[in-house]
């Protein structure tokens, strides 16, 4: 891993994601790039106060120019100040980690996806808010879109992680033949966190638990996992079962492979990954089966 992209809207959630990204970069030797996306002038105007600038203050002149002439330069200036402040914090939080920043103009999701391609990001680390969030741009729809469309793994962070020490990883699947496509990605996770226990989890709805365990053991052997446990939890709802088990084992990370194609196992349906990413307490790493 060489490049970590961190989209930020300067919210608490995005700052938590930034701190986690710095810790990962320090561990792996990666560089971090901060990104803020400025939306259309009408949307930016409504949210100008969130950038540290006034909406109706004396700082805005009564000029004859267009709204773009007034707001966009001021928004850009305020954004660059806040990005610079984050880079200054990084010097204290993670000395030696290279941190760059940039600003995109356009729709938030498009700007993030474009930056992934342009800067060769290997991982996106972004804050996540639940579906009830009304402000900032990490509401569910934007987070879910990046999970669904980004061609690199996405790590979503909702809460502060002062020490991102990954000791327990939950990996939910049905462990049938379809899951083979997830092995390479899981092996990369194991390499990054070699001391962590990987909890292979099957969320059962009344199926044969002995058969489930056999599938899990076969998967672990095929994936050459060195430190793992197999578990089955009964739940009617897959995402709820994953969240429940993550709490039960004090998970530090949930890893969910996914694919946008229909017809695959429910475990690889993007809706499961998107729901868990915006609801589960620990950080959630998603990656596409095709990327594995």
UniProtKB/TrEMBL annotation:
This is Universal stress protein. Belongs to the universal stress protein A family. InterPro entries: Rossmann-like_a/b/a_fold (IPR014729), Universal_stress_UspA (IPR006015), UspA (IPR006016). Residues 1-158, 167-287 form the UspA domain. It holds the Pfam family Usp. The lineage of its organism: Bacteria, Pseudomonadati, Bacteroidota, Cytophagia, Cytophagales. It comes from the Bacteria. PANTHER family: STRESS RESPONSE PROTEIN NHAX, UNIVERSAL STRESS PROTEIN UP12.
